């Protein structure tokens, strides 16, 4: 039976705590949410952290503390975001690896991001990739657009396989500026993935969340859910917590006879 890796992205860098109090922004909230999500079926957590004012930060001390707390309290694979927020400088994003996570996100190109630009120039991508290889952090390649898929192929051709020898990619659909969160766009992007990709997941931002979740499961892919990507459980009905979104993804995966995998199984899948 082919099982499903469920990744939860509980916080992100864009959502405002004042408007969305259920967003886990303190370490205590993040750990509680992570435990609930693990119980609901998540195997990996994609982490952005906030400062005392609930603003996105890449503070290294806090990142280290967060990695330690998640390891102590959960069995989840800890993936730190190197994407940060659109305002973070590239050197601070590279320094995220100093917090020694299990995994990190690695976006394969620049993309318009709503009214902003999420900047990922080729020299930054290659430096980050080389560091992951050197420091044995398993990257998850974030693909927001078809050009990012081509860049992933170029990266692997030039620098070889990641630490662990597996290639796990995550398609992010629905960012204004990137691929739309539609099933045809997902099918297209999956067909374009380099042969070296050993597993892929997908997430639909906002309204595209459910169609992408269902299509991804049906296509044999893995899934990412969470308040970073989608704030609503149903139209006009905000999600009350990340675990609610994870539980629904796990239930759907069960219905499709692709039950959620454990963190140990997920480690094997991505080469940890
Ligand atoms: N916050 C976005 C600008 C990642 O985590 O690597 C970038 C992002 C991707 O969320
Ligand atoms: Zn992120």
Automatic annotation (TrEMBL):
InterPro entries attached to this UniProt entry: Aldolase_TIM (IPR013785), BKACE (IPR008567)
Transmembrane segment boundaries: none
GO MF annotations in UniProt: 3-keto-5-aminohexanoate cleavage activity; metal ion binding
Pfam families in the cross-refs: BKACE
Record's keyword terms, sorted: Metal-binding, Transferase, Zinc
Cofactor requirements of the protein: Zn(2+)
Keyword Protein biosynthesis tagged: no
Official protein name in the record: 3-keto-5-aminohexanoate cleavage protein
Organism per entry: Kineosporia babensis
Source species taxonomy: Bacteria, Bacillati, Actinomycetota, Actinomycetes, Kineosporiales
């Amino acid at each position: 039976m082919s099982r499903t890796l469920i990744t939860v992205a509980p916080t992100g860098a864009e959502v405002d705590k004042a408007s969305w109090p259920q967003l886990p922004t303190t370490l205590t909230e993040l750990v509680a949410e992570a435990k609930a999500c693990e119980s609901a079926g998540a195997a990996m957590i994609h982490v952005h952290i906030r400062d005392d004012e609930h603003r996105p930060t890449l503070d290294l001390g806090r990142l280290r503390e967060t990695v330690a707390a998640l390891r102590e309290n959960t069995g989840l694979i800890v993936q730190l975001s190197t994407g940060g927020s659109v305002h973070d400088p590239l050197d601070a994003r590279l320094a995220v690896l100093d917090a020694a996570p299990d995994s990190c996100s690695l976006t394969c190109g620049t993309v318009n991001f709503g009214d902003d630009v999420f900047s990922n120039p080729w020299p930054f991508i290659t430096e980050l990739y080389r560091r992951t290889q050197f420091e044995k952090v398993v990257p998850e390649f974030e693909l927001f657009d078809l050009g990012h898929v081509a860049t992933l192929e170029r990266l692997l051709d030039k620098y070889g396989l990641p630490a662990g020898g597996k290639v796990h990619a995550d398609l992010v659909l629905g960012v204004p500026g990137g691929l739309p969160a539609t099933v045809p766009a997902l099918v297209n992007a999956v067909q374009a993935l380099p042969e070296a990709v050993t597993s892929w997941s997908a997430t639909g931002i906002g309204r595209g969340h459910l169609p992408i979740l269902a299509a991804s499961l049906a296509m044999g892919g893995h899934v990412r859910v969470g308040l970073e990507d989608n704030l609503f459980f149903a139209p006009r009905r905000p999600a009350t917590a990340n675990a609610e979104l994870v539980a629904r993804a796990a239930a759907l995966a069960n219905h499709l006879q692709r039950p959620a995998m454990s963190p140990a199984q997920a480690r094997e899948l991505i080469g940890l």
